[in-house]
Structures are given as C-alpha cells and as structure tokens.
C-alpha cells in the first residue's frame, strides 16, 4: 500500500476542470421553462455528522445510483474534513424532498461521500472507481465486503501536509478512529442542509423542481442538467443508463475511457433512447423533452429495461464492424452527437417496434454516404435540437442506411 504522501489519489484533476471537450455541443442543455405560480418552500436544517452518516446508510438521504463518479482526491477530501473539525463553514447541501423521510441529494454528493468514507475509514482507489460504480449500479448499494476490500479501497488517513515551510496540520495522518476526543467534536459538527419541497401545484412537480436547480446552477452550484435530471428522475431506467455508460465499446466509441464528470455521456444515451422510443412526439427544447421522457421512463419494468439493454448491446455489436472514426467530426476529431443519434435511431427503430434484436447492419460505405450527404450536413450545423433538424437527420439516416436486417 502506498505510504502517506505518496497516495495514488492525491494528485488528480480538479472537479471543475473541463472534461467535455470530446463531444460536439449543440447548446441544447439549456432548459426553456415558463413558470406558473408555485408554492415552494426551502427549509434549512442543520444535521450533525453522525446523523448525516446514519441517513446515508439507512436510506433517507438518496444519492441516486451513485450515478456520478466520486472525483475528489484525498487532499481535497482531507481539507473538507479538517474544515469540519476546526469549525469552519462548509458549503450547504441541497436536497429535494421526494416523499416523507426520502430526500434526493441534488448538490453535495462529493462532500457527503467524503464524510461518509472518512467515518468508515476507507477511501476509494482512483483506478477502481469505475469498477466501484459498476458494482453499485448492479447491486443498488455499496456492499460492505467491497468497502472492506483493499483492492477497491485504502485506509483514509488525512493528507494535510501544509504549505511549503508552513506548519503541518495537527490532523495530518490521522483517521476517524485515531481522532481521540476530536471524534466526538467531529460527530457533533453540523452542516446546513436546504430541503426544497413543492407544495402546489401537485401536477408538473418535477419540471418546476428541475427549473429551480437549473437556476441554482447559474448561480454557481456548478451542476449540469443531466446531473440534476439523474437525481430528480432517479429510477431503474437511469441506473441501467449508468450501467450502459461504462460498456467498453461505448467508451471506445466516444473516445473517453472514464465517464464524464458532468454526465454528458449519460445524457447522450438518454437522448438516443428517448428519440428512438418517443421521437414521434419530439418537441423543442430537447432538454424539456428529455425531462418528460425520463419521468415517463420510471414506469418501465425489468423486462422492458432488459430488452433496451440487449438492444443497445446489439447496436454496439454492429459498431464493432465499422470504423468508429465515422462518428467523429473530421475537422476537430470530436464525437458527433448528431451522427450517433441519427444512426442509432435509424438502426434500432424497427427492432424496437418488433421487440427483436435485429438491428440494421452498419457498413462503412453506408455511414460515409450519410456523413457526406448535403441534407444531413445542413441538419447538423446549428440548432441540432430543432424539430425539423431532428426529423431530417433521422429520415436521411433511414434512407441511406437502409439494408434489410439479417434473418
């Protein structure tokens, strides 16, 4: 095990670093929602650390599917713990009261999990975080045996070396069990939790709550629409998307070995599934369309979810037969959402309707023909979320990729 100060998880990219330069962005994440009159309450609650950890374990605090990777390094997590220990203010947590004694964590997952891991005395190894995420996606929780496994986690000793030439923190090298009297101090420290609840109207509740947090984002909460969406519309469907998002062929296709910190890759999967299943009812803006579909998808049962997973695998099997470069913009090399969306929808629509896995075969020649098609190109230039462009891309893909499915 690495010695203190040589930890594999000390020097990693900061959470705020731009990690979305791998895709072409159509700017469609902005949500254009119009407000009615709402009765919404925001209640501040100061929970102590012991209560917060108990809430995470017992279920009142829902961190949906752990859908976002834990991205903090040990130094950053240690600074948070030190702040709690010495009584410095910690940024507040935002929760959405979904039901009685059930709160969805909208903002604050990294802080909450840092506290939870410290109390448990375990810190996730950076190389194993995708595997941990996969296990949680499959199990629905973090198994105790995985938390105790040194292959996945290491001891959480605080890393607080101090500035060069400066005084080292007295908590440097300590863990939860060796805090001594400071352990009680830590357990009793409080963190402000803001619980948001919509009282009326009862209908359209999720859309308004989404808009609240989207506006909080513009005020500096640093959340992206899919991060909010993944919490507000948490379901077995969303968990399946998280599972599909770590499929090796999909990671190779988008050119990124690790999931995007702000869940843009998961949003792309949501987008193509939503358009394939419900594209006939597509309406702008696309962000609102995805919200509506994510809400409806909570009703999908295990049989339907398993079929969608198998359909995606069947599509990836076809992708392995062609050059993945066709899904990239030639000038920049970035992954083209528009190209992927059109090809996936065209290739999978018939199979979806027939409840079969006879996905259209893909060939390099047909894909190259689509990519160079003038009408298709025009529909990918600006505003690719426009209804006319979405329809045009799909129709061109259907025409140019049309090959009778095998069997």
From TrEMBL:
Any Pfam family: GmrSD_N
InterPro entries the record matches: GmrSD_N
Protein name as it appears in the record: GmrSD restriction endonucleases N-terminal domain-containing protein
Domain of life: Bacteria
Protein species of origin: Bradyrhizobium manausense
Domain GmrSD restriction endonucleases N-terminal stretches: 50-233
């Amino acid at each position: 095990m690495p010695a203190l100060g040589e930890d594999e998880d000390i020097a990693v990219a900061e959470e705020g670093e731009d990690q979305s330069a791998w895709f072409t962005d159509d700017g469609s994440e902005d949500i254009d929602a119009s407000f009615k009159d709402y009765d919404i309450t925001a209640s501040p609650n100061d929970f102590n650390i012991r209560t917060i950890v108990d809430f995470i374990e017992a279920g009142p605090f829902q961190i949906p599917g752990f859908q976002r990777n834990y991205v903090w390094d040990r130094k950053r997590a240690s600074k948070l713990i030190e702040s709690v220990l010495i009584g410095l203010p910690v940024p507040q947590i935002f929760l959405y009261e979904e039901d009685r004694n059930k709160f969805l964590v909208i903002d604050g997952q990294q802080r909450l999990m840092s506290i939870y891991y410290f109390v448990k005395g375990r810190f996730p190894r950076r190389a194993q975080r995708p595997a941990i995420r996969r296990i949680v996606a499959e199990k629905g929780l973090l198994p105790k045996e995985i938390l105790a496994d040194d292959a996945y986690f290491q001891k959480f000793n605080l890393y607080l070396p101090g500035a060069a030439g400066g005084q080292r923190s007295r908590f440097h090298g300590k863990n939860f069990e060796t805090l001594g009297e400071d352990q009680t101090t830590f357990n009793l420290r409080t963190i402000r939790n803001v619980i948001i609840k919509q009282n009326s109207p009862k209908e359209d509740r999720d859309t308004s709550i989404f808009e609240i947090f989207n506006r909080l984002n513009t005020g500096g909460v640093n959340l992206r629409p899919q991060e909010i969406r993944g919490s507000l519309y948490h379901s077995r469907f969303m968990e399946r998307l998280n599972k599909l998002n770590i499929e090796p062929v999909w990671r190779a296709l988008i050119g990124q070995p690790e999931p995007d910190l702000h869940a843009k890759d998961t949003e792309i999967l949501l987008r193509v599934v939503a358009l394939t299943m419900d594209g006939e009812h597509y309406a702008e803006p696309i962000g609102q369309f995805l919200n509506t579909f994510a809400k409806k998808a909570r009703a999908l049962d295990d049989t339907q979810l398993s079929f969608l997973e198998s359909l995606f695998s069947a599509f990836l099997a076809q992708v392995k037969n062609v050059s993945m470069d066709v899904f990239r913009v030639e000038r920049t090399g970035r992954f083209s959402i528009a190209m992927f969306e059109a090809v996936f929808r065209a290739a999978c629509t018939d199979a979806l309707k027939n409840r079969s896995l006879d996905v259209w075969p893909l060939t390099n020649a047909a894909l190259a023909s689509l990519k160079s098609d003038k009408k298709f190109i025009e529909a990918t230039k600006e505003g690719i979320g426009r209804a006319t462009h979405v329809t045009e891309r799909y129709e061109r893909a259907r025409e140019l990729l049309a090959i009778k499915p095998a069997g």
